[in-house]
Design brief:
single chain, alpha+beta, seven-stranded antiparallel sheet, two-stranded antiparallel ribbon, 6 helices, 9 strands, disordered N terminus
Length: 218
């Protein structure tokens, strides 16, 4: 069943990108990011305690081409900037003056989608392949089935602060690292990329600060 869901995700994700249609994500499985007291890694392999995630977190530059299923991606994106409190709209990462300026883009060879945490969807942005622009000489990036691009949207004039944007991106990046560790994924935070090419391909305004990218894979 899991393999079928994974295949269905790949088809929906790719066709959704090409058809410029929004892709609905399943509800994130937060249980995979935590462990009740008394349980061990041996008895519950689908989750990892925070202490273990901090201890084993590493940067990786080698990936298999195994696809990431929709359920796992949904949980990873929720950990990055998902809604943690529906009543207040607060997100999983700290955010200076609650700007919530950091936006996450999912980049594959089929195109680019933006993660909409409020609707828990992937919103198509472009059908262009920007992976070459993300590589910046480090060819291992091409081995990962997807890369998460982090940007800071400074369009809110009342809260505009590029320094806060840099700090907020660091919080989100660490969330991605820890979630990848708990989910059995690999990643590395990278600042290297062709920002001009990315800005042009995704039609970013001057209010968008391109910050980091995370190749994601097994």
């Amino acid at each position: 069943m899991k393999k079928i869901l994974s295949i269905c995700f790949c088809l929906a994700f790719c066709s959704g990108m090409m058809a410029q249609g929004t892709v609905q994500l399943p509800q994130p499985d937060v249980s995979k990011l935590s462990m009740p007291l008394g349980e061990t890694l041996k008895t519950r392999r689908s989750s990892m305690p925070l202490g273990e995630a901090l201890k084993t977190r590493r940067s990786y530059r080698e990936y298999s081409n195994k696809e990431i299923d929709m359920a796992t991606l949904s949980t990873l994106l929720w950990a990055a900037t998902g809604i943690s409190d529906q009543a207040t709209g607060k997100i999983t990462a700290p955010s200076a003056v609650n700007m919530q300026d950091v936006k996450v883009y999912v980049c594959t060879v089929k195109g680019v989608c933006r993660y909409d945490q409020k609707a828990n969807t992937l919103v198509p942005v472009s059908d262009k392949n920007i992976i070459d622009a993300l590589v910046a000489g480090q060819q291992f990036v091409k081995d990962a089935p997807m890369t998460l691009l982090l940007v800071s949207d400074q369009s809110n004039a009342r809260r505009k602060n590029a320094h806060y944007g840099d700090i907020d991106t660091g919080y989100v990046s660490q969330n991605i690292y820890l979630a990848c560790t708990a989910l059995g994924l690999k990643t590395v935070a990278r600042a290297m990329m062709d920002q001009d090419a990315i800005r042009t391909a995704l039609n970013f305004s001057e209010d968008i600060i391109i910050e980091l990218n995370h190749p994601i894979g097994y």
